[in-house]
Task: inverse folding
């Protein structure tokens, strides 16, 4: 049998020592078992330990930040889970920074008022508004906003009132911050609460940031009562031509039988102040050729559905100066006339 000489065995031992001293051994986790730690320490020579400590272990450097991030996120996840489980109502909770948003909107709106009305006291308006935040969230009446309305009310421009149903975003963008029309959400007492939510906790003081009641929960909730009272005042103050924008693409119908317009706006129109009511039925831009679509095309003239027919296009090419000099109002009248002819 072939046998290794003592010299050969000793040389192999030296090679193993060199390999071990040049290799890093990184733990899979900080919680290594006592047996593994003991076995590892027994297998190393004393001279190997300083070399490994000096080089360090890269995976452990990555593991520590990951653990720290996990610890930071655990409280957040717990709060979110508790919030979802503890939601009392169907609506969104109180908007964060409600007071700051309210006061900011109020002060931003003041330059839009007439000079004699620009001295509105936004702090006093907020104090009147927040009285409802001390009431049970299902016991807030429209009349609870009377003082708030009284302090924030201002005159409305004649022929500029725009009522609507089921097309809030379109109305807001089309009104263009009172440049074209002045819908309720562009009146001071409507602007400060637009797209916001607020309510007190049901059985405690302080605001409820988890959820607030809607009409499904109770009729006299803070947000619905706010819009009821604001709608009533807006209707009373509107004069001249009244414009109404309805959503013809709404599956349930353009005009809801029950809604703010039917219940809290039409009944409060002042007949002696109104000369005419114009109703626009709005469709998606690819829908029927209605005046509201044409009005939108003034702002979106490059949209394919806003192009006139070839005959009109050739006419426009022949008299470019005439079209270039027309104001937006005259263009609207022309488009409405074209729509009437096409309808015939």
Result:
């Amino acid at each position: 049998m072939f046998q290794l000489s003592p010299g050969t065995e000793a040389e192999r031992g030296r090679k193993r020592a060199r390999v071990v001293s040049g290799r890093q051994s990184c733990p899979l986790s900080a919680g290594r078992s006592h047996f593994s730690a003991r076995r590892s320490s027994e297998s190393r020579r004393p001279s190997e330990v300083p070399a490994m400590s000096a080089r360090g272990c890269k995976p452990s450097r990555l593991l520590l930040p990951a653990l720290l991030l996990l610890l930071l996120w655990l409280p957040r996840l717990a709060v979110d889970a508790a919030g979802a489980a503890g939601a009392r109502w169907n609506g969104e909770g109180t908007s964060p920074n409600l007071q700051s948003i309210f006061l900011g909107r109020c002060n931003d709106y003041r330059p839009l008022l007439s000079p004699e009305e620009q001295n509105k006291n936004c702090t006093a308006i907020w104090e009147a508004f927040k009285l409802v935040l001390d009431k049970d969230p299902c016991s807030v009446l429209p009349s609870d906003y009377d003082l708030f309305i009284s302090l924030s009310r201002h005159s409305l421009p004649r022929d500029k009132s725009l009522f609507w149903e089921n097309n809030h975003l379109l109305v807001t963008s089309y009104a263009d911050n009172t440049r074209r029309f002045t819908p309720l959400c562009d009146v001071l007492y409507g602007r400060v609460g637009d797209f916001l939510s607020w309510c007190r906790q049901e059985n405690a003081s302080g605001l409820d940031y988890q959820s607030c009641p809607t009409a499904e929960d109770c009729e006299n909730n803070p947000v619905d009562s706010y819009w009821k009272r604001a709608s009533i005042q807006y209707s009373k103050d509107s004069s001249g031509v009244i414009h109404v924008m309805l959503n013809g693409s709404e599956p349930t119908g353009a005009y809801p039988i029950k809604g703010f317009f039917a219940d809290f706006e039409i009944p409060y129109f002042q007949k002696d102040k109104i000369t005419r009511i114009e109703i626009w039925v709005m469709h998606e831009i690819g829908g029927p050729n209605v005046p509201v679509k044409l009005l939108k095309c003034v702002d979106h003239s490059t949209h394919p559905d806003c192009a006139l027919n070839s005959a009109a296009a050739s006419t426009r090419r022949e008299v470019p100066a005439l079209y270039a000099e027309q104001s937006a109002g005259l263009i609207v009248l022309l488009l409405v006339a074209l729509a009437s002819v096409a309808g015939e």
Observations:
- Residues 1-6, 13-59, 75-82, 309-344 have pLDDT under 50 and may be disordered.
- The radius of gyration is 36 Å.
